[in-house]
Amino acid sequence: MHWNMTDQNTSLSPLDLETPEKPFLDANELVINMGPQHPATHGVLRVILRLDGERVMGLECVIGYLHRGVEKIGEHRTYTMFNPYVDRMDYVAAVSNGLGYCETVEKLLGVEAPPRAQYIRVILTELNRMASHQLWLGTHALDIGAITPLFYTFRDREEILKIFEKYCGARLTTHAFRIGGLQYEAYDGFEKDVKNFVSFVAPKIDEYEELLTTNRIWLERTKGVGIISGKDCIALGVTGPVLRASGVKWDLRKAQPYANYKNFDFDIPVGQNGDTYDRYIVRMAEFRQSLRIIQQAVDGIPEGPIMAKVPKVIKPPVGEVYHSIEAPKGELGYFIVSDGSTQPYRMRVRPPSFVNLQALDVMCRGAMVADVVAVIGTLDIVLGEVDR
Amino acid sequence: MQPFIHYVQSYLTSDKTPGAAGNMFWAFVYILLIFTGLSIAVIAMNWLERKILAHMQVRLGPMRVGPHGLLQPIADAIKLLLKEDIMPAEADGLVFWMAPLIVVLAAFTVFIVVPFGPTHAVTDMNIGVLFMLGVSSLSVLGVVMAGWASNSHYPLIGALRSSAQMVSYEVAMGLAVVSVILMTSLNATGTGTLSMIGIVQAQQSQGIWFIFKFFPLGLIAFFIFAVAMVAETNRAPFDLPEAESELTAGFHTEYSGFRWSLFFLAEYSAMIAVSSIAVTLWLGGWLRPFPGLLSGSTWDLVFSLFPGITFLFLAAMCFYSTARMPKHPYFRIQTIGLAGFGVVLGFIGLLLFVTPVRDRVQDIYWFSLKVAGFMYLYIWYRGTFPRYRFDQLMKVGWKVLLPMSLGVLILTAGAGMWFSVGK
């Protein structure tokens, strides 16, 4: 499609975007199209920017380039068959997606995974949270111009993926969990691998921080950029580290404990200013909290069965259920309506990235072009999850 | 024939640059040498940047084309030359065509006055520094033209950023340079010089590199220049005009193939050019280190052996790598190539031990070594720093560097007055 540069033909005109400040000269606005093929949009996000010089007067996100109809697919597959599909939404945190789905169906069925399965689930999910945050840190720093952290984080993420590969054979879209527990028992040396990883990665997190946390340019680029208040976050439904960086202490692992999280001792890192720097600090602190959880889980891993009693053909009773977990990016919820058959009547996913992306416009008004890139990075979106 | 040979030979004993001596033959030879040397330096720089950056980022960098990727820049050059030359349909043809030429011309012309040694420059202009700063700032014109002629939004924003940035950093840069010019006037006659060779000779006669002069004033002026020159050449952390994550490739987004490679060539030769200014003005140009501490003919001899030793060391490294190459028929040609490269380097190293060559070449060696240090800094910055935002960049330029350079200038003038009155 040929994109016409003149103002009246953009889809922005019906959207009433107020001007952040009165332009000095009555010059024409520049409308530029960022994406869907752009190095900083983390996939196929398209952002239409209205610029006054370098200042952003408004923006609009165009999504759907990666739409695969995951929810509709869910209504045409049995509960078991749909399980691998959820991995393809937030593909950098596939384990979390799987955990959310399995727990939701378990809630619908009224079963609970045995403790050993719960512990292994927690270990893998927290490892996946770290992998997701590492990918976020690398790409976010790359967007702001620091090219080196990307390679450090990818080097260390590799160790996590190796554990996944040893556990279930897949590295990215793992399909690690089953409804009712786990299919695979932890392999020989699983606990040793995880312990080794914990001691390996703890100094590496300091290494990332060393490059960025006190770097003057990093501070200037992130402090006071993309500020969003806790009130706005709640109004927009923003969750996850973005919400916590705005000072709201809301973590589903504590607020609505699931999967044995109540047995573990960990803190919820909270920021104050709700700017990009606080979100960075919160996520860096989450790395360390994840390590604490993994350490406790691997130390206290009980013996026992790994699969609850679940029928071969899953036919949940008629009813509906909503269950959400704290995915690396925020609240990941599944809403399932069952009509008593083998397939869900309605499958609805509440993905954190999709909801968090709403805040982009609020956070970018009046900012510079370079800040848009920083804010897209700090929101930590995955387009597979936004578009589903 | 005889007069021509005499004409050629007569210069060899001269202590002037070919331009100053009026010897057109040698001036032409120097131009050719500098052009070739610069092209080789850009090629080497390309390889080194990729390798050093790669090692900073826990990866290997180019390894496939030639031993340790040594032939990668050549392969890249061939690729760029063979690529289709695309000009956007809506572009302004003439301006689009001229922009890379202007940038390259500006980047190469400045090397006319760069003094690689007391006689190793094409010419010695009495306005040398001014000429360098003036001509190198012409490249802004090419950048703006490139951005405008592309008739596209990202290049336009890139070009606007670039021109604003280059213009504002030139102010601080120029003031830092003026403080050095003031320092050159601290002699018996009280007259300073703008000639690049004259500035180095002033450092020689005052027995101190200007970076240490009036400590810490010289150091601060040098620091200001060192920051401004990174901004001037649009390199990280001031690489906003080509900020990949925001503007894809900035002002040269629409350029491809040979035209793009001209921008690339100009960027790297501009980096070498501003580093040469910094070396000439503050780091004693071609002078060897520790002239006061380690003086005497013995030390002179030891330092004059450095060029040869460096090349022999590089040759030894090549041979070591050759010995470590996998013993497999697949790598046979690469192994032979690496050993051959080592032999060439070793031969050059031995040649550099011959007395007449040694005496004439060691100036070039020290100069190149100092410039190479700056090149390493450029790569190091790129591997370490995030990118400044546009308004922050302007803030650093106008609110930090400019007042600093003004203050340094005033203090340098005061210090100069104080010391000459004391005499």
Written account of the structure:
The complex is a heterodimer of chains A (388) and B (423). Chain A is an alpha+beta fold and 388 residues long. Chain A is built from 15 helices and eight strands. Chain B folds into two domains: 1-8 and 21-72; 83-287 and 389-423, no CATH class. Chain B is globular and about 65 Å long. Chain B starts with a helix and ends with a helix. At the A-B interface, helix 4, helix 5, helix 7 and helix 14 of A face helix 8, helix 11, helix 16 and helix 17 of B.
Q: Tell me, what's the shape of chain A?
A: globular
Outline the low-pLDDT stretches of chain A: 1-17
**Proper CATH architecture of the largest domain in chain A:** Orthogonal Bundle
Helix content of chain B: 55-70%
- CATH homologous superfamily title of the largest domain in chain A: Cytochrome-c3 Hydrogenase, chain B
Computed CA radius of gyration of chain A, to the nearest angstrom: 22 Å
Q: Count the domains of chain A.
A: 2
* Class inferred from helices and paired strands of chain B: mainly alpha
Radius of gyration of chain B: 23 Å
H and E order of chain A: EEEHHHHHEEHHHHHHEEEHHHH
Q: Fill in the CATH topology of the largest domain in chain A.
A: Cytochrome-c3 Hydrogenase, chain B
Name of the CATH class of the largest domain in chain A: Mainly Alpha
Main structural class of chain A: alpha+beta
How many individual helices of chain B? 17
Number of strands of chain B: 0
What is the CA-CA span between the terminal residues of chain B? 55 Å
Q: With helices defined by DSSP (H or I, 4 residues minimum), what is the helix count of chain A?
A: 15
